[in-house]
Amino acid sequence: MSTPASPTRPSLTDRRWRDDLHLAHTIADQVDPLTRARFDAQDFVVETKPDLTPVTEADREAERAIRDMLARARTRDSVLGEEFPTTGSAPRQWVIDPIDGTKNFVRGVPVWATLISLVEDDEVVVGVVSAPALGRRWWAVKGGGAWTGRSLASAKQLHVSSVADLEHASLSYSSLSGWAETRRLRGMLSLMQSCWRTRAYGDFWSYMLLAEGAVDLAAEPELELYDMGALVPIVTEAGGVFTSLSGQPGPWGGNAVASNGLLHDAALELLATPTDNMPKHANRTQQ
C-alpha cells in the first residue's frame, strides 16, 4: 500500500512547481494581514464596477501587493488579476483574485479569501486559497494532492466524499439570481430538488468544502478565470471533478460545476434542463 506524499516532501510529479507553491504561500502570508486589518476596521470606500459588482480600496491594495511580489520573484511570468490589466505575455501566468467574496467583505461576513494560482501550458498547476478571517488556508499543486492547514509543514490532506446518489448529496451554491439571469434557473432548481440538502455557502468556500468532503456538489453560472483558477487544482487533487456547465474541464468555460466525480454526469444533465425566458428584471438590466 502506497503512502500519500507528505506536504514537506513533494512527489516527483509536483516537484517542478514546488518553489512556485512556496512563493504563493509567502505571498498569502504577506497579504493576509493587510486584508484582515481592513476587514476588521471596515474603513474603506466601496465603489461599483461597470458590471455593478462592488470593489474596495482593499481589493486594489491587495492586488498591487501581490503584483509587486510577483514582479520581483517571477520577472518573466505574466499576471492576470481582477482589478488591473494583464501584464506580460509569457506562457506561465499567475492568476489572482485579491478578495474573492467582496460582498461578504464589505458587510463584515468572514467568508472571503485571496486566490492565487499558476497556469502553465493551459493548465492550472498551483492553487492557494487563503481565508484569514476564517483562519483557514487550502492549497494544491499538480500531482501533489490537496491540503489544508496553517503551513506547508503542518497540513492535512483533503479527499472528496464518496456519495454516489443525488438523493444523498449536499449541494452548495452562491445565489439563484445568476441562474435566472443566464436562463438556467429551471436546471438549477431541478438539481436542487434532486439533492438531499442545499446550502448557499457561496464563493470559494463551496469548493473548499467540496474538496474536504463536507459537500458533494457546487455550481455557479457566471464566473471569471480569476474566480476559479485557484479552486481547480484543489478540487481535482482532492479527487473531484471541475468543469464548465458544458462539461469542459478546468476554469475556461465562464461557469462551473464541481463534484466528487461520482455525481458529475447526473448534475450536468439536470443543469442542462431547458429553462423559462429571462425574467423582466434581468431584461431591464440589459437594456
Automatic annotation (TrEMBL):
GO biological process, one term: L-histidine biosynthetic process
EC numbers for this chain: 3.1.3.15
List of residues binding Mg(2+): E82, D97, I99, D100, D227
Keywords recorded for this protein, A-Z: Amino-acid biosynthesis, Histidine biosynthesis, Hydrolase, Magnesium, Metal-binding
Catalysed transformations (reactions): L-histidinol phosphate + H2O = L-histidinol + phosphate
Superkingdom of the source species: Bacteria
Gene3D superfamilies: 3.40.190.80, Fructose-1,6-Bisphosphatase, subunit A, domain 1
Matches recorded under PROSITE patterns: IMP_1
Pathway(s) the chain acts in: Amino-acid biosynthesis; L-histidine biosynthesis; L-histidine from 5-phospho-alpha-D-ribose 1-diphosphate: step 8/9
Pfam families the record matches: Inositol_P
Cofactors that this protein relies on: Mg(2+)
Annotated family: Belongs to the inositol monophosphatase superfamily.
NCBIfam families found in the cross-reference section: his_9_HisN
Function, in words: Catalyzes the dephosphorylation of histidinol-phosphate to histidinol, the direct precursor of histidine.
The protein, known as: Histidinol-phosphatase
